[in-house]
Amino acid sequence: MRAILFGGGFSLLISLLGTRVAISLLSRRGYGQEIRDDGPTSHHTKRGTPTMGGAVIILATVVGYSVAKLITHSWPSASALLLLFLFVGMGAVGFVDDFIKIVKQRSLGLRSKAKMVGQTVVAVVFGALAISPMLADENGRTPASSTISFLRDIPALTLPPILIVLFIWGIVAGFANGVNLTDGLDGLATGASVMVFGAYTLVNIWQRNQFCQDLPTAKCYDVRDPLDLAIVSAAITGACFGFLWWNASPAAIFMGDTGSLALGGGLAGLAVLTRTELLVVILGGLFVIETLSVMLQVGFFKLSKGRRIFRMAPLHHHFEMLGWEQVTVVIRFWIITGLFVVVGLGIFYAEWVAGT
């Protein structure tokens, strides 16, 4: 438990102080955000705001986790290293995207195909290693399972290795782009991420307290390295919390794709490694809704030859176009995230109570 507190605390401190340094550094170099021309006109005032702040979130998470392990004199686990690989790897793809936007002074960075190739490489490597017997512990537990899970493995949904890797890729790509789509208003994605990663910290702590020493039962969880996953999750929570101080409206810095892809990848990685791939759809419900709003908008636009469901997608822009203040949209979407988190944690705990 000390390691979790150290990881979250140090990460928060590094993010809080480091983001201020990043704002000054990025401003001096002119690394400002470009704004899409077809977006709400109120966003044009944000042009030039420092971006790529997600690099601070990534750095704070990695350093916070590392310091926690040093203080507690323990070695990193395979699960934690895999999660950090996915987190940093997706962030690197986002960093390239952000850097191209800055250099070429446009609102679009990497081409969609190149962006997807980068995400696919990182996700497939993560998935293949996560189910690899080479990383199994002394009890034969691999970091991830070849069986799809809601709260526990569902035996009927056991898949061949290649299909489970494809499934993992789908989760990673889906949530990485979901958080990316949500990151359109000051503090929206950051605040939502604090709640969702905070929820996963609690899930990991509970899984650690109810860990199966031998054979899994309805009273325990057959999850590899739950304590170490809790440290990483707490570190990400702390990093987002510190960053939110500067990212709240009016934002002094944006996380950019560097941060949004990293956070989405990290969330998907936690879902895979904690065997809760379907529960994350509830815990991260806001990101799912934002993604669906874009899919519905694009699909309906093509089928109806130019008609739209929403005034603008993703969904938060629709409410802006209806006249809601940005702060109002953000706070209400935070409330929705909180409700999703409460429902998800309630289902998680209720299942354990029913099993006892």
Spans of 5+ residues with little confidence (pLDDT < 50)? none
Q: How are the strands ordered across the major sheet?
A: 1-2
Give the ordered list of helices and strands: HHHHEEHHHHHHHH
β content, as a range? under 5%
How large is the radius of gyration? 20 Å
Total E-strand runs: 2
Query: Could you state the oligomeric state of the chains shown?
Result: single chain
How are the SSEs placed, and which strands pair?
Elements: H1 2-29, H2 54-71, H3 78-104, H4 112-130, E1 147-149, E2 153-158, H5 161-182, H6 188-209, H7 226-247, H8 256-273, H9 280-283, H10 285-303, H11 315-321, H12 326-355
Antiparallel strand pairs: 1-2
Helix pairs in contact: 1-2, 1-7, 2-3, 2-7, 2-8, 3-4, 3-7, 3-8, 4-5, 5-8, 5-10, 6-7, 6-8, 6-12
Describe the structure in your own words.
- Helices cover 66% and strands 3% of the residues.
- The chain has helices at 2-29, 54-71, 78-104, 112-130, 161-182, 188-209, 226-247, 256-273, 280-283, 285-303, 315-321, 326-355; strands at 147-149, 153-158.
- It is globular.
- With 356 residues, the protein is an all-alpha fold.
- The chain has one domain (2-355).
In brief, what are we looking at here?
The chain is built from 12 helices and 2 strands. The chain is mainly alpha-helical. Strands 1-2 form a two-stranded antiparallel ribbon.
Note the main attributes of this structure.
356 residues, 2 strands
